[in-house]
Design a protein that fits this description.
Elements (H helix, E strand, L loop, with lengths): L13 H16 L1 H10 L4 H24 L2 E5 L4 E6 L5 E6 L3 E7 L2 H6 L2 E7 L7 E6 L1 H30 L1
Antiparallel strand pairs: 1-2, 2-3, 4-5, 5-6
């Protein structure tokens, strides 16, 4: 059983997951620029190879730093989830258990290759997911989902019981 009351990191395989997502995202954004560079530098393949290698190393370092600076923990006494993220711009997200609407697990192709899951936590009032924990093991993902839904539903059951008692 995982101790979620101490700060937890993602799985070490998360570095590879973060690297691949960062790489594919940047290739999509800069595809036309990369195409122009490659077409113009056909005569100098060594420079292209060095540029690709340099970018790959930069993305790998960036992924390792994202992994290192991302932690999550549950504070049972205060009934919230605390997520710390960011390399330069640090963010600290606190989600009250009562505000959690849905906890879902996702496993894309790269997640399947590395045997990890993404935990997505949705809250009321936001169109996007409030928190995405990119890469945790199956056991941690399922236990975190179960724990969060248990604490979130405990408040809903208590409110329903109070409301029914008031009506009677």
């Amino acid at each position: 059983m995982a101790d979620f009351e101490t700060p937890q990191r993602q799985s070490i395989a998360g570095i590879l997951v973060l690297f691949v997502f960062s790489l594919t995202n940047n290739i999509r954004h800069f595809a036309t620029l990369l195409l122009v560079v490659f077409l113009r530098m056909r005569e100098q393949p060594l420079y292209i190879l060095l540029a690709i290698l340099g970018l790959a190393v930069a993305f790998l370092v960036f992924a390792a730093l994202k992994y290192w600076f991302f932690t999550f923990e549950l504070n049972i006494q205060e009934r919230n989830l605390l997520v710390k993220d960011g390399i330069i711009n640090k963010t600290r997200t606190v989600i009250q258990f009562e505000n959690i609407q849905q906890v879902s697990l996702n496993q894309s192709f790269i997640h399947k290759l590395t045997s990890v899951y993404e935990v997505i936590i949705d809250t009321a009032g936001s169109a996007d997911a409030e928190v995405k924990i990119k890469a945790v093991s199956k056991e941690v993902a399922e236990e975190l989902k179960e724990t969060l839904t248990q604490y979130a539903s405990a408040k809903a059951v208590a409110e329903t019981s109070t409301s029914e008692a008031e009506q009677q």
